[in-house]
Amino acid sequence: MIGKLNHVAIVVPDLDAATKTYRDVLGAKVSEPQTLPAHGVTVVFVLLDNTKVELLLPYGENSPIQAFLDKNPSGGIHHVCYEVKDIIAARDKLKASGARVLGNGEPKIGAHDKPVLFLHPKDFIGTLVELEQA
Amino acid sequence: MIGKLNHVAIVVPDLDAATKTYRDVLGAKVSEPQTLPAHGVTVVFVLLDNTKVELLLPYGENSPIQAFLDKNPSGGIHHVCYEVKDIIAARDKLKASGARVLGNGEPKIGAHDKPVLFLHPKDFIGTLVELEQA
């Protein structure tokens, strides 16, 4: 079912400093910051040769990543995102296996303008998993 | 400097259950478990289309991942591993920029029989980073 690792998301307390760490210290290609108000984040994409790292800073008052940053003030890995071909088929198979889909169970349009779902960390070894229809 | 994401490492409390989650629930290809006494882990490789997830269970009395599991009994993401072409050049550049290399600063032979180094999470946004010479 899962195909590629689409990205690893890292929540950061200072987007400028995190971008410099990846660009200047680790020597990676990075994008300009993009604010996505609908997702409550400002993101910088780190473009690796086979996948992406996303550096996420909370944006706005109801950012879904604020609580994580409050708990991890230095930042840290927030989730991994795996690609699937058909997100409805994937969701139905996951629910049938007993895995919990977060929210109302309907895919939302994610930061890449593609349908996404999040799965409960307790069902995936303490790891928040995003699925994105590729 | 960094090229591909070589793997995402997830520490797990039950390797059999974690393997079933990735194989049967997420539908991924998984390897047989391999015990690496020198690294204090038993590992199952999850083979994605563009990279790997490594499911790590502590092995032996001095496993370097036991403390993480004690702190995160449900498991969780432990580190990310980026590939570099020349690990000595990478280390020297990192040290010159003020980043801390863990241990004695000399590369060790990692789980894939290639030279690796670990970098201090405090210098990389709360994220433990492994570098592997590809």
TrEMBL record, chains A, B:
Its EC number is 5.1.99.1. Gene3D superfamilies: 2,3-Dihydroxybiphenyl 1,2-Dioxygenase, domain 1 (3.10.180.10). One of its GO terms (biological process) is L-methylmalonyl-CoA metabolic process. One of its GO terms (molecular function) is methylmalonyl-CoA epimerase activity. It catalyses: (R)-methylmalonyl-CoA = (S)-methylmalonyl-CoA. It is an enzyme of class 5 (isomerase). Keywords: Cobalt, Isomerase, Metal-binding. Belongs to the methylmalonyl-CoA epimerase family. NCBIfam families: metmalonyl_epim (TIGR03081). This is methylmalonyl-CoA epimerase.
